[in-house]
Every structure is written in C-alpha cells, then in structure tokens.
Amino acid sequence: MALRFRRPRGTEDILPERAGHWQFLEARIRNVMSRFGYREVRTPILEEAELFVRSVGEDTDIVSKEMYTFQDRGGRWMALKPEGTAPVVRAYLEHGFHRQGGLVKLYYLSPIFRYEKPQAGRYRQSHQFGAEAIGSGEPALDVEVIDLAMSIYREVGLSNFALLLNSVGCHKCRPAYREALLRFARAGQDQLCEDCRRRMEVNPLRILDCKEKGCRRTMVKAPVFSDYLCPDCRAHFEEVQGSLRDLGIPYRVEPRLVRGLDYYTRTAFEVVHGGLGAQNAIGGGGRYDGLVEELGGPSTPALGFAGGMERTLMALEAEGRLPERDEQVEAFVAYTDDPGKEVFPKVLSQLRRAGVGADGAYTVQSLKAQLRQANRKGARYVVILGGEELRRGKVVVRDMRRSEQEEVPLEEVLGFMSNKDRSVWGPQKYKGGR
Questions:
Q1: Are 331 and 417 within 8 A, CB to CB?
Q2: Are strands 302-308 and 281-287 parallel, antiparallel or unpaired?
Q3: Maximum Cα interatomic distance, the chain, rounded to a whole number of Å
Q4: Of 32, 110, 130, 427, which is the most exposed, with the fewest CB atoms less than 10 Å away?
Q5: Which segments of 188-308 does DSSP mark as H helices, in order?
Q6: 192 versus 161: which is more confidently predicted?
Q7: Which CATH architecture has domain 16-173+229-318?
Q8: What angle do CA 200, 202, 206 make, to 5 degrees?
C-alpha cells in the first residue's frame, strides 16, 4: 500500500533508536550551561517577521531567501524563527530584564526554520543550542562565552575541533573597511556570483560569507578587518586573545571570518570540526553591541553563540563518540501460562513503583519470543512468571548478560530491583533453588 503522507523535505523524524543521542547531548549542554551560570529561556517558534528583518538584516540570505513567512488572519506578517538570538533579545526587552541592571545570562535549545537546500547536518527544520550574555562590553565576557562553547564540545566528547577568531570592528571603524572592500569587489566583480554582485552595493561584507567557489577564490586577497580596526576595537581584540592564551584555549585568527548576520560587532568566532568535510562549522557567535538598541531598548552591549545540534551529533559520529544505547528498561516481565499472565500487571506495576524501569509483553507470545523482545529493549533482567513457581511464592529471574537464571522469592526480587547497589544480589546467592 502506497504511503499517503511523508515528512516534508528537509525535515527528519528522530526515532527512538536515535533519541537517546539527542537526550545525551541535551543533558550535557544543560549541565555546562548551568555551571557557567546561564538560565534557560524558551521563546515561541512564531515571531513577527519584522523582528528578523531589523536584527538579522534585510539583505541577508536568511531574510531574503530562507525565512518562512506568512500573513496571519489578523493581517500581520509572521515568521518561523530562523535563528535564536533576536527572539531572546526581544524577550529580554519585553519582560523588563534591561530595567533590572547588571548582566543577564540566558541559554536556549530550540528548533529553527530556514527554507534552504537540505545539506549534511542542515535541514529546513534543524535544532540549535545557544547562549546570550547581555549587559557587559568587557573582553572577559567574550572569553567566557567562547570558553562556554568550547567546554560544551569537550563535555560531549569531541576532540577534533578548532576555534577560528576575528574582529569585525564597530560603527566607528567599519565604514572605512566597507569602502575598501567595496573597491576591491568592484574591481573583481566579473568573478563574483550574481548574488554577490547584488550584495556588493548593499552590504559588501556579505561577499566574505559567500560559499560559491568563484567568490571565495576572488576574496582570498580582499582587504582584512585587522588593517582597519580603530584603537578601541584593536585593544579589545588583543585582550580577548591574551585571555584565551591564559586559559590555554587554542585559536587561529581568520582575518576574513564574518558571521552571516548583520548584527555582529567586534569579536566574531566559529568552531569547525575536522571530520565533516566542506560543511564543517558546528557553532559560532560573537558580539552584537547594537542589537538591543536596534530592537527598541537602551544601548546595551551583548554577545552570544549558537551551535547546531545535528552537526554536533555528526561530529560525534565522525569521531566514534556517540554513546551506546542506554538501557530503556532494567527489567522485562514475561509469563509462561495463565497464572503468570494473571499476576503480570501487578508485578510490572510493583517494579515501576519501586523506581525500576520495567516493561513486558502485552501480546500472547512464546517465552522465547518474549526473551527476544527483552533483548531488543536492552533489559538486563527478565522476571519470568509461571504458575508452578508462583504457587511457591517464587519467580525465575534471568540475567541476560550472564545468560544465567535462578528461582528467586518474589519479595526479594522487588527488594533487589529497588536497591541501587545491585551487586548484593546474584543468581549464585540462590544455588539449588530450582
């Protein structure tokens, strides 16, 4: 029979076999965020489209080509959020964090939506984790956010990754660099793609972020930001580098690194992985000192980063670091006859109420089939209920790892299963029981 419905292109179903990997990653992210003092925020999937036009930039690919927008029944233009920073800043302002004073540190895990050609680790619905630190312009905060990102990647088990670093200046020094870059781009515009020829007059910095091979070859000799930084930006960048060296965080200055969003200022960074080929970025971020003001708040320095969860899982797989499947259940309850079937629900419930992950077969199957099902679920133990044993107040417990089984009093099975120190029990304790 032909399937009537399939998932939309560029989306994926995260099935139980892979959900454990996601749960592992999410748990490690939350753990590190908490250690660094960041609190979770959850923003809506829907936002006003203008939020992203104002923050990300009207001429960026995200806004001009990739953003999912629609007009709601009230006539308002809405968007599925294509990135996480602007919604967090909107929430920061809407809920009055800016009136509290001091530094506000928030993190999120969220789906994002971009209508783009699906590629490795990048989907039309993908998932990001990110952190935003709002309220300080100190270089030390830049270093903390970078350290936070690197700590997450180490915490999940990655090792083959590198930090790329640059400064993209500020409103004082960027105009001079923009003019120099524009002169360079005009001279070589015949080698640029159609999009970059359009971008050239609107925002030439976008050319540096283009992935087309011709554009990348052309821009290799383009002017670099470091030659145009004002004294304040240069001092800020040097302090960031010095602190990274003090912390023992290796980095490489990438003089043509820009981020794909217009709100970045000063520090910009990217984390790349050596096992992912051309599409090797697994995270990145930087400072956005003008964004809070652009969205209607007071002048407030801030910075943040975001990491791709799909890309991070791909990197873990490339290094052979994906965790093995967690045991979904510790105990599986099986039965061999009607008396066993009769007490099956009660034994299963008792195990669960004792804090034991337990499951069982709810369809009529042979014992052999039930044992296969227990094995698929990763159960360490199978509690086998049979009428003959139950009449004597006992059950059979099978240790699936040792391929051993023994007859055990039912009350002691429950006691063992609820005891965290499982080493106190074993079939050897009950020799001669069968």
A1: yes
A2: antiparallel
A3: 93
A4: 427
A5: 194-202, 205-208, 213-219, 231-246, 291-294
A6: 161
A7: 2-Layer Sandwich (3.30)
A8: 60
Q: What is the pLDDT of residue 420?
A: 43
Q: For the chain, what percentages of helix, strand and coil (3-state, to nearest 5) are there?
A: 40, 20, 40
Instruction: Kindly give, in sequence order, each residue whose CB lies less than 8 Å from that of residue 6, ignoring residues fewer than 6 positions away.
Output: none
Which DSSP letter does residue 27 get?
A: H
Instruction: Give the list of residues 6+ apart from residue 381 with CB closer than 8 angstroms, or none.
Output: 330, 331, 332, 397, 398, 399, 400, 417
Q: Which of 302, 172, 167 is nearest to 241 (CA)?
A: 167
| Residue type (1 letter), 255 | P
- Could you list the beta-strand ranges (E) of 135-171: 161-167
CATH of domain 331-429: 3.40.50.800
**Encoded amino acid at 157, one letter:** G
More confident call, 269 vs 118 = 269
The whole-angstrom separation of Cα 241 and Cα 254 is 13
User: The whole model's pTM is what?
Assistant: 0.86
Of residues 199 and 175, the one with the higher pLDDT is: 175
Mean pLDDT for all residues in the chain: 88
Let me know how long the chain is. 434
Comparing 88 with 120, the larger pLDDT belongs to 88
- Which pLDDT value is given to residue 3? 85
> Tokens 């099956």 — which residue?
344
Could you tell me which of 97, 111, 106 has the C-alpha nearest to residue 44? Answer: 111
CA 322 to chain centre: 14
At 414, is the pLDDT very low, low, confident or very high (cuts 50, 70, 90)? confident
Please, where in the chain does CATH 3.30.930.10 lie?
A: 16-173+229-318
Measure the CA angle with vertex 330, ends 329 and 332; round to 5°: 75
Judge whether residue 62 has pLDDT over 70.
yes
Cβ pair 122, 111 in contact under 8 A: no
Residues of the chain within CATH 3.40.50.800 domain(s) are 331-429
